[in-house]
Amino acid sequence: MKNLNYFPFARSRYFYGKLLTVDDFETEQKYMNDKRRMVNRFLHGSGVVCGMNVVRVDDRTISVEMGLALDFAGREIVVDAPVIRKLDMIDGYDESAGEDGYLYLCIEYAEEDTEPVHSIAGSAARGTGEVEYNKVSEGYRIFFTAQEPEHEGFTTANHYRDTKTVYWGNGIRIKQCLNRFLTAGGEAVLTVLVENMGQQQSFAFDYDVALTCLEHEGKDRLRVHFDEKDFPKAGRYRLDIPLKALDVRSAEGGAQVVSDSLSLTVGGRGVAAQAAGGNLCRVLSGSAEGAVMDQYYRTAMEDIVRNTYQQSIYLAKISLIQAGPSYYIESVENMPFRQYVFNGSLSAAMNDLILAKLDRLEKERPGAAPAPAAAPAPAALRSVASGSVVVNLGIGGVEGQRFFSQEIAHGLGLGPVHIGLGTAWDIHDDSPIVCGSPEVFDEEGGEVHAELAAKVDVTKGTFVVGLRLTAPTSARHVRIHWTAVRDTKEAVHDREQRRIFIRPDVCELEVRETCYFQTMFENVSDQRVRWSVKEPQGGEIDENGMYTAPSTVGVYEIVAESLAHPELRASTYVVVRDPMQAEG
What we know:
Layout: H1 22-44, E1 47-51, E2 54-58, E3 61-64, E4 67-70, E5 76-79, E6 83-86, H2 93-96, E7 102-118, E8 131-145, E9 161-169, E10 172-179, E11 181-183, E12 187-196, E13 203-212, E14 214-215, E15 221-227, E16 236-245, E17 251-257, E18 263-266, E19 269-271, E20 278-284, H3 288-306, E21 313-323, E22 326-334, H4 344-364, E23 382-392, E24 402-404, E25 408-409, E26 418-424, E27 433-434, E28 450-457, E29 462-469, E30 477-487, E31 499-503, E32 506-510, E33 514-516, E34 518-522, E35 529-533, E36 540-541, E37 546-548, E38 554-562, E39 569-577, H5 579-583
Parallel strand pairs: 11-20, 32-39
Antiparallel strand pairs: 1-4, 2-3, 3-6, 4-5, 7-8, 7-21, 9-10, 10-12, 12-16, 13-15, 13-17, 13-18, 14-16, 17-20, 18-19, 21-22, 23-30, 24-29, 25-29, 26-27, 26-30, 28-29, 31-34, 33-37, 35-38, 36-37, 38-39
């Protein structure tokens, strides 16, 4: 099974009198294997499903325990009995053991022909004489390598986190990690991973990071400092630096290493070194979790189908100590790249633990009173609107056909609302209304059987009703009753004083220089703003608050106006200077 392409799918078609050949049987096997492997890869992913722990037996011996894994092509790798090997008996040991002080133990799918038999038809065309093999044995190959994966696209973290190596040398590696999607105005973390790749002397370093659409302690630049003496001796260290995403909408951001800013000392002596690269992110006004899902659904098909080159599963990182011509095991780190398959059983168990933790935290919250889990919110904290809409079906429709209403204003203001829908059996006002599945009341009849859904536009206070027919109908119209419910806890803010501020209060810039302005609200849930410059020749500012100073010196007023509450406005001033005039 060297062919790693799933598509196109084709299976044998049988009929009486058909002459079956080797090709027919191989097509049958390939069809079933490809279908199963496609499900494995697309639904479950790749990595270790269970087991396969690597255990140190003695100074020069390891054991790979029983386990199951799925490889990059969806093929099953089964270790049905513990595998105990001396280091020098594992493929790749002689080539990989060297100055780095560690090796990666990998496993990959392998198969071989077994059970040689006499072939009465002969195999001269294949160069094997009259010997053929009766079976194909599916197995695995374990081996050592000193090379890391070409990329970490096979890991689950790659879906939501951008990881880049910014320096690698002198037995030291520095990585930066930043989430790919951040919520505007929300918190973020820049993680710096420092790995000692065999450096025997203590080391320290500093370098600068330039931030875009991010800030650290109110600044768009930060200094990363690390000294190995400040940590217990280990092979890997971690620094978490808090950041905040600016209040922008759909903007590209990042944390880039400033060139020529790295200062590295090893054993107290300065070492020439250069760091480069950084992380990219996107700052969104919506949910970062939703963006991760959207990106996965857009790109997963192409990524999986395209990446058909050999990708191994890294079971362990084995650190070695050299003693003369030999090496001895210092430590074993299992699954260094976290290549796991998160199966349904484990997911259900983790979900139970999370729900239990949330329930415990709720009960421990000060002032919390016990209440039934499904108790409705008090009427005082809810606002409700209802109505009906008639959807035109034309001359009727067939099963699976979709229809949509015009845009409907629910009247509860901006923000999220919940829409409940019910279908009238005909368009008359006294018609029964069914909320839920109409099949439950089949015995009473009903002209339209359909699935209902509502799509809410939280920025406009409107929604659209859609229906998909689950059975053919000759009806020309259907009346849909709707009920909109909004949690009005945020409406309490409407009775309090609303305010808007701009940060920074006053800004001094040189001509054509840029600066980000950020709004701060009090008692306002909808924080969208419209930016403008009061003076016609006072420069430009975009929708994210990025201001570009004009070529003319002066003092200019920047205005931020709330879109939801136009009466809320705030101003700040920019002093634009020309350094050439100042020198003159």
